[in-house]
Amino acid sequence: MTTAPESVPGVDDDPIRAVLESLVQERQALRRAGADQAALEANRIAIVYWQHALAERLSLRPRRPA
């Protein structure tokens, strides 16, 4: 089980996480429906884009001391 990263003022990643969750659900629905490769690829590219955006957003959080 993972824990949510600490909240940092001005660094709100909830909207990005919501978009990613929606895209993952969409991908599952596309697969169940037997969607064509173009639709699955478009969805995959969107997921990669938003994963990168989330990584960038998380990189703005201060690092914890070792």
Can you characterise this structure?
With 66 residues, the protein is mainly alpha-helical. The protein has a domain at 14-59. Helices cover 64% and strands 0% of the residues. The chain has two helices and no strands. Helix 1 (14-32) runs antiparallel to helix 2.
Describe how the helices and strands are arranged.
Layout lengths: L13 H19 L4 H23 L7
Features:
single chain, 0% strand, 66 residues, disordered N terminus, mainly alpha
Quick structural overview:
The chain is an all-alpha fold and 66 residues long.
CA-atom Rg in angstroms: 15 Å
**Average pLDDT for all residues:** 86
Between the first and last Cα atoms, what is the distance in angstroms? Answer: 22 Å
User: What kind of sheet is the major sheet?
Assistant: none
Could you give the count of β-strands? 0
Approximately how much beta-strand content do the residues carry?
under 5%
Low-confidence stretches: 1-5
Order of helices and strands: HH
Number of helices: 2
User: What is the share of helical residues?
Assistant: 55-70%
Query: What structural category arises from helix and sheet content?
Result: mainly alpha
* Shape label: elongated
